[in-house]
Design brief:
This protein has a six-stranded mixed β-sheet with strand order 2-1-3-4-5-6, sandwiched between helices. With 726 residues, it is mostly helical. It is built from 38 helices and six strands. Among the domains are: 167 residues, Serine Threonine Protein Phosphatase 5, Tetratricopeptide repeat, CATH 1.25.40.10; 127 residues, no CATH class. The longest helix has 17 residues. Strand 5 and strand 6 form a beta hairpin. The radius of gyration is 34 Å and the shape is elongated. The protein binds one DNA strand of 10 nucleotides through helix 3, helix 5, helix 7, helix 9 and helix 11.
DNA sequence: ATAGGGTTAG
């Protein structure tokens, strides 16, 4: 092909570039690659036709806008043109916006103005495309001024480019003001405006504007339908979604694959998986988005195994598909499976993005998998994955939930941008790790930074007060929630208050709070009171709280167990026997205690009395050794919370086999001397395990960190960060 | 020789 073109060219005489006789440029139509363009370009130089503007235009247009465009090449040629026409400037701008360098486009545009070349109606659509929020904030207004100055605002392409620039960079109000002022709108104007509202999540306004558009008689295109279906999906508005579906059929709108996918997504989001699936099954062609949408649909409806079935059937998966499936496991608290899937994702050589990283960090946080979390952090740096605020927040949360307060704070202090969630993560993280005072300090910094707290932030503040016994500060803050921060206390806040007062020994006041709260107390509030009764061994109030809880949640086994603990601790054996009988009759089973420990990137799981671990034999031998070592340091088993009907010796065996002890023994065997042992437990730590962990930290000079259901225990040199107050 | 809008995920 190139040689034919070259032959053709060589027949054109070198002197043929006289104005009255422009050279033929048909041979450029066959040019397919930059390689061919280079040959043609060389020929035009040899023959001299290069000096003719028509030829220059052809070469520049190809170099800038062809699929295999080469802006370095284009710029080199551009520099040889003494007086570039507006056309040449335009294609240069287009070239830079195509390769996602809108700032370079702006630089070219400014150079063009300096050379006194006026922009035309082609310039702005190229120039404004692909602006990010930052670029729009920096140049948007000025360029908007230029549009008016050069009298181009009535051109519909220019006007749509302006609306699109503002709305796609989140400056929706600016977009709207151009939109409202424009006299001639077409369907694209409406589309870009509506998608602007989608962008800032004002889906109800998207829906409203769509209705207005239809009323005004503007005919929607498939693109309009996709935008509005997306809004319906987010609003979970099945009614409008169905209407639009009907509209598609009634008006014979050509349903392309993107539109079909949007329909599948809308039905899935509205909980209509059967309709969603039906559309999916009837598709002639399916792409990775169709499949991912189905996977996500099942994930959202909690049917993670069905989601997996479709995920496994996919012939092609991208990082979004993998992340969707990982999230499906997260949603069901199946964190280990989430991590297993991440390993498969790596094996498949699919590159994760920052969304994947957030999901994996969440799994690490919940499993206490610090090693893997650290690895992810290094991976993010190494692979230059976008390290945005979401990632920072997830890292902070991971470090706190793994009990590493120092590193969590280090991430916090180096984050360039912080949002409400960042501050809240730090406050909650400090609180659960027992650093109440510091949490309050961060809270006042947050207020100074003019970040408004939300409900969760308030939970963190109350939790900080509760875990550190700051009763007066907690009372004061609770009173200020409405007056200072405009936040109405919800059940969780009342629960925190009851916890705060009750734990500090003000059981009567705590009970009063429950009785006087403006809404009917729920199980969170009664549960907090019940927990306080355990700490202070008040079996009478405990009975009231437990009875209320069981009215609300008859299936809540933990309530029975806690009441048993309390009876046992108060030596109320008769009551305990009756309760045990009732539990037997109702078939109530204790949730087995379960502890997780990560070792060399693998999460090991232990349940009470477990013998399933490959190292089980060694673990029990180690446990024997620990017990005898600790006895020298003053350890005696504390079986006061054991409520099983058995002799003292059997009780000792029962506490001896608790899952956190197995995990500690395993940790001591498998890690280097001096390494911190981190454990995550699903239930509250028992008194005996707590006592033993303190001694382990002293005798073996090991830091032991146990995260239980509600808080952290940092064991160091024989004492615990919770000050035995949990 | 050069024009604009869309789906999946924390």
């Amino acid at each position: 092909m190139a040689s034919i073109a070259a032959t053709h060219l060589s027949t054109t005489p070198a002197h043929a570039h006289h104005v009255e006789n422009p050279p033929s440029t048909v041979f450029f139509q066959n040019c397919k690659s930059m390689e061919q363009l280079r040959q043609l370009h060389a020929q035009t130089i040899k023959t001299g036709v290069i000096s003719h503007p028509v030829v220059q235009n052809r070469i520049m247009a190809f170099a800038c806008t062809n699929e295999s465009s080469d802006m370095i090449y284009a710029h080199r040629m551009f520099d040889t043109i003494p007086e570039p026409s507006v056309f040449i400037w335009n294609v240069m701008i287009k070239g830079y916006s195509r390769i996602n360098c809108p700032e370079d486009g702006v630089l070219i545009y400014l150079a063009m103005l300096r050379r006194n070349v006026m922009p035309d109606h082609y310039t702005f659509p190229f120039l404004l495309k692909g602006f990010t929020r930052d670029i729009a904030l920096e140049f948007g207004k000025e360029l908007h001024g230029h549009v008016l100055k050069y009298g181009l605002h009535s051109n519909i392409y220019v006007q749509n480019a302006l609306v699109s620039m503002y709305s796609s960079s989140g400056l929706t109000d600016m977009a709207r003001s151009v939109f409202d002022k424009s006299c001639g709108k077409d369907v694209v104007t409406w589309n870009v405006m509506i998608s602007g509202y989608n962008r800032i999540k004002q889906f109800d306004e998207s829906r409203r504007l769509f209705n207005e558009m239809v009323e005004k008689g503007v005919l929607p295109t498939p693109v309009t339908i996709v935008i509005v279906l997306s809004a319906c999906s987010k609003l979970k508005d099945l009614e409008t979604g169905k209407q639009i579906h009907k509209y598609v059929r009634d008006f014979n709108i050509e349903p392309n694959l993107v539109l079909e996918n949007a329909l599948i997504d809308m039905y899935a989001a509205c909980g209509e998986m059967s309709v969603s699936l039906q559309i999916f099954e009837n598709l002639k062609r399916r792409d990775v988005i169709s499949w991912t949408t189905i996977v996500k649909g099942f994930a959202n409806s909690g049917q993670v195994d069905l989601a997996r079935k479709y995920f496994d059937r996919m012939s092609e998966r991208d990082y979004v598909s993998w992340t969707a499936m990982i999230d499906a496991y997260l949603r069901m608290n199946r964190f280990k499976e989430a991590l297993e899937l991440f390993r498969e994702m790596q094996a498949s050589k699919t590159k994760p993005d920052e969304f994947t990283m957030v999901s994996i960090l969440t799994a690490c946080a919940n499993l206490g998998a610090l090693e893997l979390g650290e690895w992810i952090r290094a991976y993010i740096d190494k692979s230059r994955i976008k390290n945005d605020t979401f990632v920072g927040n997830a890292l902070i949360d991971m470090y706190f939930k793994c009990g590493n307060v120092e590193k969590a704070l280090r991430v916090f202090s180096t984050m360039p941008q912080r949002d409400k969630f960042t501050w809240t993560a730090v406050i909650v993280g400090l609180a659960i790790n027992g650093h109440g005072e510091e949490a309050l300090g961060i809270f006042s910094q947050m207020l100074k930074a003019s970040i408004a707290p939300d409900e969760i932030t308030c939970v963190g503040v109350l939790c900080a007060c509760a875990h550190t016994g700051m009763v007066d500060k907690g009372r004061k803050f609770f009173a200020e929630m409405i007056s200072q921060h405009g936040i109405e206390p919800n059940f969780t806040h009342y629960g925190c208050m009851v916890d705060l007062l009750g734990r500090a020994g003000h059981l009567k006041e705590a009970y009063e709070v429950v009785q006087n709260m403006p809404m009917k107390p729920n199980s969170i509030v009664w549960g907090a009171l019940l927990g306080a009764c355990r700490v202070h061994k008040d079996s009478e109030l405990a009975e009231i709280a437990a009875k209320k809880m069981l009215e609300l949640e008859p299936e809540n086994n933990a309530v029975y167990v806690l009441l048993c603990n309390i009876y046992a601790a108060c030596n109320k054996w008769e009551k305990l026997r009756e309760l045990r009988q009732m539990m037997m009759n109702r078939g109530v089973k204790k949730t087995p205690g379960c502890s997780l420990i990560e070792m060399n990137g693998v999460v090991h799981e232990f349940v009470a009395g477990d013998e399933a671990h490959p190292l089980s034999k060694e673990i029990y031998l180690k446990l024997d050794k620990i017990t005898s070592d600790l006895k020298y340091a003053g350890y005696t088993p504390d079986t006061s919370e054991v409520f099983l009907d058995m002799g003292e010796e059997d009780k000792e065996v029962a506490v001896y086999r608790h899952s956190e002890k197995l995990a500690i023994a395993f940790g001591l065997i498998s890690s280097k001397p001096g390494a911190t042992i981190r454990i995550v437990k699903n239930l509250r730590m028992c008194v005996d395990c707590h006592r033993m962990a303190k001694l382990v930290s002293k005798v073996y000079r090991r830091e032991v960190i146990v995260r239980d259901r509600t808080r952290f225990h940092h064991f160091r040199q024989g004492s615990c960060s919770c000050k035995d107050y949990w």
